[in-house]
Structure formats: C-alpha cells, structure tokens
Amino acid sequence: MALFIPAYDTEHATECLPACRVIVEVHRRLSVPATFFIVGKLLEENGKAFREVLDDPLFEIGSHTYSHRMLRDHPF
User: Taking 70 as the threshold, does the pLDDT of residue 1 lie above it?
Assistant: First the structure.
C-alpha cells in the first residue's frame, strides 16, 4: 500500500493563509501529514502568521521559489 502525502502551493497571503487554516484543521482532525510549498517572499512578509498555522509536526514547509515570477511574463 502506497502512502501519499498531500502537497499545497501557496502564493498570496490574502488568499492562501485563510485557506491554509481550513486545510490544517482538516489534516489535524484526521492526523494526516501535508507539505505546504510557500513562496519565500510570502514567508518574509507573513512568516509569523504561517508559523502559527503550520507549526506542527504533521506539516512540512517547502520552497516554492522566492517570488514566483511568471515565466510567460518574463522579458526574455
């Protein structure tokens, strides 16, 4: 039997932080681990808030780039 750990990408604090709170509650209730890939710039700006939500051994924080600049908008 394979074990799958859910992973979530976060990019904007105003939209993602409230969603993370809801997702975290579900994971805690079911004792299911998860990884949250968070943009580095977002952690610099809202690190304390994300730590309050994700400071639990069930959760891992991974890097989702620093600023998540869209490549299609990049002036190559």
Answer: no
